Amino acid sequence: MDTIFSEVVKSVIAYYPVEVKNIYLLSFKGKKAVWSIETDIGELIIKKVPFDEDHITFMVHAIDYLRDNGIYTPSVIKAHSGEGFVKVDGEYFVVFEAVHGRSPEYEYENELLMILKGMAAFHQASKGIESPTGKFPSFLLTEWKSDLKRRYERLVQLKEQRLQATDHNEFDRQFLLHVDTFLQQCQTSISMLNDPTFDQWVEETKVTKSLCHQDYAAGNLAIGSDGNLYVYDMDSLTVDLPIRDMRKILNKVMKKETAWDLERMIKMMKAYQEVHPLTKEQYHILAADILFPHLFYGQVTKYYDKREAKWTLQKHISRIKDMAATEISKEKVVQDFLTRLDEVVQNG
């Protein structure tokens, strides 16, 4: 298999102005693969990507656009043709510069705040982007209300199915114990989005085209040897309100705690606000998104849709208990956060 992989890499690199010395397979997941290669110009990274040409063309353009606007992310090496990708045997490959560093850690406040400032800079730098193909691979901006309603309806459907079932296991019991609480959270969240601020922000973003990374988190970040924060994996870029990324990082950080932490949330939002200021009204939209039970929904559908076949039932049960506790603890924190917005939005 290594020989086959080596031949693939050599076929790809033949399209580039470099010479290969050594090849190392870093990961292989069927449609995706990553290699590190030593070349005459230093280490490079080759990624096999399962996207069509329009998607890859946009991704490469976005990386160049973000880099030009000050974001630290590995550059795309251009092939002889000048393109940012090559096609070999019906599959697409992109070659990147290699950047070494370590993932930031949420436990260290200075590194956590560095993440929020980096995210804010990313959102700021992405504004004004257009697609070279005229199409965006993802445009979640216009799908907010319909997506949240669909998720709400899915929880209702699952509740009805499990109530009718006679063979409840402990996961079912945990789900039924908490589902009404979270259906109420869904309704509160959706009703909060019926706000002129939300609709106006969506209309403005249709024009400015700001991007969300969708996984701006420690696993896709590195503090480089130069001290700068680098962001990787631009596979899932979407045109959207910045609060999608903000809500996701808040959830990632808070679910590692025993409960939502108000002071930590305020510090995180202050760091973001320093670089990419939002209005008080926009923070109310963030609060609406946080109040939707994304973590509970994700864990429930992971189990019932069998998306983690290797997980034991006990692991699923442990996770649903943890997610439910996190979701319940956030309600008062979000309310308290909104009463202290003056601390975040100094001039709002």
Automatic annotation (TrEMBL):
Is Cell cycle tagged as a keyword? no
Q: Which InterPro entries match?
A: Aminoglycoside_PTrfase, CotS-like, Kinase-like_dom_sf, Spore_coat_CotS
Keywords attached to this entry: Capsid protein, Virion
Domain Aminoglycoside phosphotransferase residues, every copy: 35-256
One GO cellular component term of this record is:
endospore-forming forespore
Q: Which domain of life is it from?
A: Bacteria
Quote the protein name from its UniProt record: Spore coat protein S
Which species is this record about?
Answer: Peribacillus asahii
